[in-house]
Amino acid sequence: MPHEDRRNFSIRLTIFKAAVILVFSAQAVAFWWFQVARHEEFAARADANHLRTISLRAPRGPLLDRDGQVMVQNQQIYIISILREQTDDVDATLERLAGITGADLAAMKEAVRRRLRDPIYRPIPVIENATKVQVVRVKARQIELPAVLVQEVPTRLYPDNRLAAHLFGYVGEVNEAQLARPEFATLSPGDIVGQSGIELALNSLLMGRDGARYVVVDSRGREIYLEGEQAPVDGQPIKLTIDLDMQKALEEAFHFYKFTGAAAFLDPATGDVLAMTSLP
Hints:
alpha+beta, Penicillin-binding protein 2a (Domain 2), five-stranded mixed β-sheet, three-stranded antiparallel β-sheet
């Protein structure tokens, strides 16, 4: 190889080596900058952002009469809850929430007191069936209320005139005594179950399976992005032997004639209960 070519090759090799050294040096500096110099900053960001699991209540199955007419169904309402993990002062948060919404402060404190043994990450409802005005006010001040959660959830809608109230029964939050029973062993405080009547007797069928939303939130409780979602599964619709029109006629007759006592209409061919009532 001619002397001039060897010289040019040596120069190019030196430049190449210098470039490689420069690239690796830059990578080393960048590594040091992000992993050492700014370690505490990025660690704080990682700690500040965390995953929040928001339960999605499953609608209960509707109750239908023998012809498929809906007697008991669901409606959507707003619930305003407190996230204790997002506040160092629950009382101060409740006081601010009461001032914004006009809700009863004592009632909200009592709602929290009843659920103090719940896991700290589980929302505690403090305003049930919130009005649209209350919801708008809270959402408008959400930055000031990182520990407050607004949810739209399904709840039971019964006939306005309390038709067959003794038959349908009602639902409510599962209580401690129920949680100790095998049929409620998989439930958690705050879950909604049947408390009497058909709602209780057929609770396992009427209850659906709750879903969940998984969202990443920052240190102020603001949602950054949705990590995932598991849709709730609706409860089963239940068709009863009751005839809605006959049930209405029976109860109207009792009220009109001011009867007291009990009565039932049966299908003589099958023994099906077509209507039943009891007053008072």
